[in-house]
Write a structure and sequence with these properties.
The chain is 24% helix and 23% strand. The strands form three sheets. The protein has a five-stranded mixed beta sheet with strand order 7-6-5-8-9. The chain has a two-stranded antiparallel ribbon with strand order 1-2. With 191 residues, the protein is α/β, with parallel strands linked by helices.
Length: 191
């Protein structure tokens, strides 16, 4: 969806509303190292998007009461398969379930062949995501919902890998636990 917004909007950076900066290069643009950049251009590939105009144009960006019954490839949203991604600093685990929660596929960076500290990298998460996406497509899944839990380097790369693998991601939900009673902090350092 972000690429569609990026391609349709060409808004200068002067607008005062909320601005959103993206850094993915557009596929239609070629980099010319001899060309002198314009004043508001920034780094190659960066574009500024005015969020207020995007939200006005796309009212269905946030869920409503009717969004549970919205059809995606003929399947209601509430019956779409769910890909649960558990991201930690040491590993990334993907669990593909149906809408009821029955587990269909499990992959992790360790299963994929990454060992030790390499399991916690974003490259490992992206490779594992592409792997589980191809397995899901083999089972007939085309459109999925994504739930991400935890903080780690593979958070964004995991969702990107699912899209690169050929799955259409309809929604991304952050399901990270927030502890209301965290562990006791370390004693203060003596100076």
């Amino acid at each position: 969806m972000l690429t569609a917004i990026r391609n349709t909007l060409r808004i200068p950076a002067i607008n005062i509303g909320r601005l959103f900066q993206t850094s993915a290069p557009l596929a239609t643009e070629k980099f010319d190292h001899k060309r002198i950049p314009q004043e508001d251009e920034g780094v190659q590939g960066e574009k500024i998007i005015d969020l207020d105009s995007v939200l006005k144009a796309k009212q269905s960006l946030f869920p409503t009461l009717e969004s549970e019954n919205t059809l995606f490839d003929g399947v209601p949203y509430k019956q779409l398969p769910i890909c649960n991604i558990r991201v930690t600093h040491n590993n990334t685990v993907f669990t593909m379930t149906d809408a009821a929660g029955t587990v269909k596929l499990i992959r992790s960076c360790g299963i994929e062949g990454f060992k030790n500290t390499k399991k916690g990298t974003n490259i490992a998460a992206q490779t594992t995501a592409i792997s589980i996406a191809t397995k899901a497509i083999d089972r007939g899944v085309k459109t999925i919902r994504v739930r991400v839990r935890g903080l780690g380097p593979g958070r964004l790369a995991a969702v990107k890998g699912l899209q690169m693998g050929g799955l259409e991601v309809v929604s991304v939900t952050d399901n990270t636990y927030v502890s209301w009673n965290p562990p006791r902090p370390r004693k203060a350092r003596r100076l």
